[in-house]
Amino acid sequence: MAQSSTMRQRLHAWLSEYAEEATLRWIFRSALAVTIAILASDLASLNGWTVSPDPATAPAEIREDSPALKLPGIVPSILAPLLPGGDKRLVPLPEPDGALAKPMTFELVGGGRLLATGTITPGISQSFAAEAERHGEYIKTVVLNSPGGSVNDALAMGRLIRDRKFATEVEAGKSCVSSCPLVFAGGLDRRAGDKATIGVHQVAAIHSAANGPPRDEMSLAQNISARCQHYLGDMGVSLQVWVRAMETPHDRLFVFKPDELKSLNIVTVAPRPFATKIPSNRPGERRDA
Questions:
Q1: What is this structure's pTM?
Q2: Which residue range is the domain that position 199 belongs to?
Q3: What would the pLDDT profile of 272-287 be if each residue is shown by its tens digit?
């Protein structure tokens, strides 16, 4: 007790003798701590580590940069350097041009092959259904070359392809990316040519009618994800395909290697050894030169 009392007396004596110095030191340290906190906050904002809510961007739709859609990609992005191949497996999403940038068109050629070329625009599944109804008895294979597009229409096209027992194919050097692999998965038999590109990424955005009622964006994203998983399961494709899609940013593309196409059951038939040119005399078919 005596020792504790002595220490308090010494402290009081020191404060009495150096009161002004102690106060100034305390004020300096407090100001320094506040300054450091403000600088840290500014640095975080400049680097995008924090996000301030902006009422002007109230969601009428799920935007491309919406956190609701990027949640599945956060962990894989952080761990990317630790994964086999790291970011080298991801390539920039190519910008479609020419016929690929236009709404998908359908052309029946020799050998019962229906060429489906272009973007899967909303409603295009109805045009495909009409084409299948008109030439269904002649169509054997749907040949895809597409940058993707509407997920709903891709699912509808894939379901119809399976119902009709059509095969699907991506020819050598052609591409089927984004939502197009959903169409491709519908094929009863699925073939990809040499250097064909088949790739996936996250759903980019879900558009809603202007001034429409508010809706649960996360619920919509999860609903689409669940539908795609059910669909791929029904088509006999590994659900790992959808995992790859959900962990890949919407402005990137995860391209499957030839061995992955087989191991994930994306393709079921070996590529054609060479292109065959079959003369056609079927109604509505184009004769190959």
A1: 0.65
A2: 92-263
A3: 664 444 444 444 444 3
